[in-house]
Structures are given as structure tokens and as C-alpha cells.
Hints:
Blueprint: H1 2-33, H2 42-47, E1 53-58, H3 64-79, E2 83-88, H4 93-105, E3 110-113, H5 122-130, E4 134-138, E5 149-153, H6 155-169, E6 173-178, H7 185-203, E7 207-213, H8 220-233, E8 240-243, H9 246-258, E9 267-268, H10 274-282, E10 288-290, H11 293-308, E11 317-320, E12 325-331, E13 334-336, H12 342-346, H13 353-357
Parallel strand pairs: 1-2, 1-3, 3-4, 4-5, 5-12, 6-7, 6-8, 8-9
Antiparallel strand pairs: 10-13, 11-12
Helix pairs in contact: 3-11, 4-5, 6-7, 8-9
The structure holds beta-D-galactopyranose.
Beta-D-galactopyranose binds near residues 186 and 271.
Amino acid sequence: MKRLFFVLNIGVFLFLLGTILSACEKDQNLNTKLPLQPISDSKDVITGPEQVKIGFAMDTLEEERWLKDKMLFKESVEALGAEVKIMAANGDDALQVWQAEKMISQGVDLLVIVPHNAESTAAIVKKAHQAGIKVIAYDRLVKNAELDMYVSYDNEQVGVLQAQTITSIVPRGNYVYIGGAVTDNNAYLVKKGVFSVLQPLIDKGKITVVFDDWTKDWLPSNAKENMKLALEVSANQIDAVIAANDATAGAVVEALEEQGLAGQIPVAGQDAELAAVKRIVAGTQTMTVYKPIKALTETAANLAVKLARGEDVKTVKQVNNGRIDVPSILLSPIAVEQSNINDTVIADEFHTKEDVFRGQQ
Ligand code: GAL
């Protein structure tokens, strides 16, 4: 009986000992973890800035610049720790709407759009807002929509720089204006800037605009047809040409070449495309307007990621899009001629010296 009693006690003693020991162990683990956490809110320490996904709905990759916009925007967004999804609609309005809807359904947190058609893309802004997603217009404005933000270069100033350079060389004479696409709000802004400089000279009878038309979809082939018509209706009596971008300026120079006039008639462009900068070195194009794409993509990426993370962003400037005053950031464009190629596009490594001067006399 005594032995049984003794054995039972030992058993109870050992059981209690085991329970106490395991409780001590648990406590120790807790202790080691706990001291780390009280310092600050656990979420910040462990996860860092909120992971967001930005959708970039582009119009086209036809012009050289858009390839740069695509690459540099992706780099800028990823450098901010966010994801980016990019689609390009090749100038097709219905496809651009479909692509935007697709990105919305794939859960992007914010949409950045380069509208092909300034008016029809208002529908995309509406769909995005219905899904609780904000929209930033990139380079080109979306008209008549409750847009959240607009980031671009000062496109009126682009036109002013073009006309100031050309009128300083040709203060009198017959001018041709080769405009951009009527679907693109930038085409109106650039033209407004050009004519803000030309009109006083027109009014004084110093300048006559012998031909002025838009270029459907910014296509060089359409611009060339227009320039051939301009040469025809004016019997080649042309003293200067202002084209809304370098792709159309290249088509103008081709048409002039066919008439043996290339290099004799000053031509203005925009975008600082490599081919255009080479034409400026060769003397068949007079100037272009350089818009550093890196600055534009970094600005847009910063705004997009901030807004996607729900941060508040204030801007100094607003641009009215026919519906509201859109909070906007407009960067300053730069005129480029033979004299400052080195200090601008080459200094910025937008193009290399080798690429620009290769094959030049
Ligand atoms: C405009 C843009 C220009 C030009 C053009 C054609 O909206 O500002 O840089 O390239 O589109 O795509």
C-alpha cells in the first residue's frame, strides 16, 4: 500500500514538473518576439509602402518617342516599388477602351492614359471611376471628363518656340502649316502657340499662310500628301514650313527633296527624334522641340504611385478640359537648333554623339 502511494506521488510530481517546464519555455519564446514589436506599428516594419499596380494605356508606339515613354515609365514606376501594366492601342479608339476595361478588371489601382481621341476616352475615365480607380492623362488631355490629373509639357509653348525660331529666320514670306491629328488635343495647343506668334505678322501682311491643314492620325504619309499639295497650290513659292512633329517634318523634307528644295526652306518639327536631329546637322531641318521624356515619366510615375496609395497630391496649375479644371503639371519644352544640340539632347544622353553625327560630312 505504502509503495503504491509512493509511486503515485512520484507520478503526480513528475507531471507537475513537466507542465511548469513547458510553460516556462513558451514564456521565453514570447519574450524574445515581443521586444521587437513595441517600437512602431507592425505593418510598416514588415511590409513597407503599399504594393500598387499602375495601368498605362498608350495610344500608339508608332513614333520613336512613345517607345521611350513606355520604357522609362516602366522603369520609373518599378523604381518606386510598384507594378506596371502597359497596353498600346495603335490608334484604335475601340481597342483603347477595351484595353482600359481589361486593365480595370485585372485590378490596377490607377490608370494612366495617353488618349488617341481626346473626346471618346472620356468614357474610360467614367468606367475607371465606377471601379473606384483614379485616372491621370499623360502628355495628351482627355476632354470633358472628371479627370484626376494631367501631366504633360506646355504644348502651346512648343508652338511658340517653333514659330519664334522660324520667324527669326524668315520674317516675311509664304508659310505652310502642317498640323497634327484633329483627335489629339495637343495638336490644337501647338497650333495655338504657333499662330500666337504668326498672327501679328499675318495682320501686318508680312506673312501669308498659303496652306494649313491637319494630319490624320499624325501619319507621315498623310503629311507628305498635304505638303505635295501645298507645293502644288503655291507653285513651290514657299519660304517656311512649320510641322507639328518630327515625323511629319520628315515627310515635309521628303516632299521638298522631290522638288529639289530640301535645305533651302526652313522647316520646324517637335520631339527631337534622332532622324530629325540628324536632319538639323545636315541642314534639311532647322529646329525641333525637345521634351525630355525622362522628366515626364518620372513626374507621372511619382503622381500615379502616390495617388494609387491614396496620398493627397496638390498642384499649382489647373487646365480646363471643358468639364473641370484639372490639377495639372506642365513641364517646359526646349528649342533645339544646330547651335545647341550638344548642350541639350546629347548632354542629356537622349541621343549619343555617335548616332547624331554618324555619316554626316
Ligand atoms: C503628340 C505628342 C507629340 C507627338 C504626337 C504624335 O500628342 O505630344 O510629341 O509625337 O503626339 O504621336
